Amino acid sequence: GAGVSQSPSNKVTEKGKDVELRCDPISGHTALYWYRQSLGQGLEFLIYFQGNSAPDKSGLPSDRFSAERTGGSVSTLTIQRTQQEDSAVYLCASSFQGAGGYEQYFGPGTRLTVT
Amino acid sequence: GESVGLHLPTLSVQEGDNSIINCAYSNSASDYFIWYKQESGKGPQFIIDIRSNMDKRQGQRVTVLLNKTVKHLSLQIAATQPGDSAVYFCAENDNDYKLSFGAGTTVTVRA
Q: Which site among A92, B33, B49, B67 is 20 to 30 Å from B6 CA-CA?
């Protein structure tokens, strides 16, 4: 079946511009996660959705970052007034349930470059 | 703070040999662990998982060992193949939704 998809796969933007990154989770998965991966680093948790609610936004680096999820499906991560330090790969994952012990399936990521 | 880490950032292995990738974790409350494989330009791919009530689990060519006493996790890959070249991450979950990842070990398979 279809896995997690993300778009765009690559995004180059100028400093100060806003960007939107999209994630389509696996159908039926109630939990959705956003992570950030800087070059050569592990994954940094950003935000978690259970359905359309985000009970944990604690990983968002600043108030320039926001995310929403609609219809219990598609999620959008928005970065306003991008900075060079925002350059990274943004990964989305989904799982059957949000409780611990369920495998998270990852998308291919969006590589964001801020010039 | 608590963290998940890997002992070695890189591992070079001869094709056909067995590989062992190590991971130390510090959260004693963690009860679920996953190994992921990430190839260049792709998202992490699930390899194998293990719950804290087990100390060993086997998959196809892979075995995960969990030592809760010393908070150590390892991934063994049998008969390593060129397609096994990737970055390997361990991740822990303390029965909450969040996975904590280490920095990863880059495995390079020599022909």
A: A92
